[in-house]
Q: What sequence folds into this?
């Protein structure tokens, strides 16, 4: 009997030791002893704690939008940092490093463990001196205007010049076609260190005023020297679907319901600002400043950014971070006024390194032949590229209606 009592006492002691002083098991199967507190502290650590992008190279004066992923804990933003930053949301900031060339680090910590950090490294580089003109070619008719854009690094005063007598050009790069012929527009700069640079664009001016009545899509394509057979193939096969896709994209991604509809889109972050109707350049400048400061609608997905720009034709620097989209109907009177004001072109010209314009087709059912003009516009870009797309647009936007 005594042996039985001893055995029982040893068994009770074993149970007491292995169950953590009689504590109940936690839901995850760990014992409810003092060690459970350590497990709980580990559980509160973030499952994921990272920053995106981790590295970025920018030119002086530009900003970077940084997104922090921190699951199961809060984010502790830095009290001081080289440069400045604006908190856009609970996990996103817009960081502007100093304008001096160098490497800058933006580091955040977690609320649970300040010793745990994640860092983005931003390199500010002065770009190599360069100058580019957009568009590089243009086909116009007598009396028409086109605004040319000069992208210059480092930023400095641009001087415009036009050869021969086919037109004149204003100090802001606005060309007016006056006589039929071919001429060259030149943008030039004289650097402070004796650095002289220039870039050219070739212009062809066609005789005769632009047709404001019924315009044949095929005839317009012919005036731009587009190959007739390839244009017909594009027009009859893929163009219709492309126009419908452009309209559906505008409706589904940006909730476009009428035209002109303008979207300033940050192609890196997916953040945008939607501006409806015809607005002044000052209005767009204000909207751009807000977007660059990180203010805008909830980001669209990477897939939607790619979908939006998949068939885009660019007016200006195609590498610009901000895309000034306009959904337009070629026969819409408000769209015509918006185009004639050259508002988005001016925005791109004012910020050639940051902003590029993209016009997207959005023909309305109330204009029965607008889809024909839109299909022709798509094929002009498809076969001729960005410059031909906007040369076609310059004439098509003045039409009263379209025929095949």
A:
């Amino acid at each position: 009997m005594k042996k039985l009592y001893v055995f029982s006492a040893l068994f009770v002691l074993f149970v007491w030791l292995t169950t953590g002083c009689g504590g109940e098991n936690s839901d995850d199967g760990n014992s409810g002893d003092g060690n459970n507190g350590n497990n709980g502290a580990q559980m509160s650590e973030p499952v994921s704690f990272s920053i995106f992008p981790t590295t970025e190279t920018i030119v002086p004066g530009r900003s970077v939008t940084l997104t922090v992923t921190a699951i199961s804990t809060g984010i502790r933003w830095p009290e001081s940092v080289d440069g400045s930053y604006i908190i856009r949301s609970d996990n996103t900031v817009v960081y502007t490093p100093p304008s001096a060339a160098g490497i800058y680090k933006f580091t955040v910590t977690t609320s649970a463990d300040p010793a745990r950090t994640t860092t983005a490294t931003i390199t500010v580089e002065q770009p190599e001196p360069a100058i580019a003109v957009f568009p590089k070619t243009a086909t116009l008719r007598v009396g028409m205007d086109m605004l040319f854009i000069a992208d210059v690094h480092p930023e400095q005063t641009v001087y415009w010049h036009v050869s021969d007598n086919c037109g004149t050009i204003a100090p802001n790069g606005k060309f007016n076609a006056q006589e039929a012929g071919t001429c060259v527009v030149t943008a030039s700069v004289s650097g402070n260190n004796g650095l002289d640079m220039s870039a050219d664009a070739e212009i062809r001016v066609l005789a005769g005023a632009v047709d404001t009545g019924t315009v044949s899509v095929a005839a317009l394509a012919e005036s731009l020297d587009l190959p007739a057979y390839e244009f017909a193939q594009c027009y009859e096969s893929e163009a219709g679907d492309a126009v419908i896709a452009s309209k559906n994209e505008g409706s589904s991604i940006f909730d476009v319901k009428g035209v002109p509809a303008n979207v300033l889109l940050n192609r890196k972050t997916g953040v945008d600002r939607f501006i409806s109707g015809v607005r002044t350049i000052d209005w767009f400048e204000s909207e751009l400043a807000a977007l660059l400061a990180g203010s805008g609608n909830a980001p669209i997905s990477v897939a939607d950014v790619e979908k939006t720009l998949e068939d885009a034709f660019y007016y200006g620097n195609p590498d610009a971070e901000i895309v000034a989209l306009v959904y337009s109907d070629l026969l819409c009177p408000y769209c015509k006024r918006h185009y004639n004001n050259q508002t988005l072109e001016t925005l791109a010209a004012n910020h050639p390194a940051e902003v590029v314009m993209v016009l997207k087709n959005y023909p309305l059912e109330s204009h029965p032949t607008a889809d024909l003009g839109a299909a022709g516009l798509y094929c002009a870009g498809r076969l001729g590229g960005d410059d031909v797309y906007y040369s076609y647009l310059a004439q098509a936007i003045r039409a009263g209606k379209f025929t095949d």
Summary: Residues 49-124 form a domain with the Immunoglobulin-like fold (CATH 2.60.40.1080). Residues 2-18 form the longest helix (17 residues).
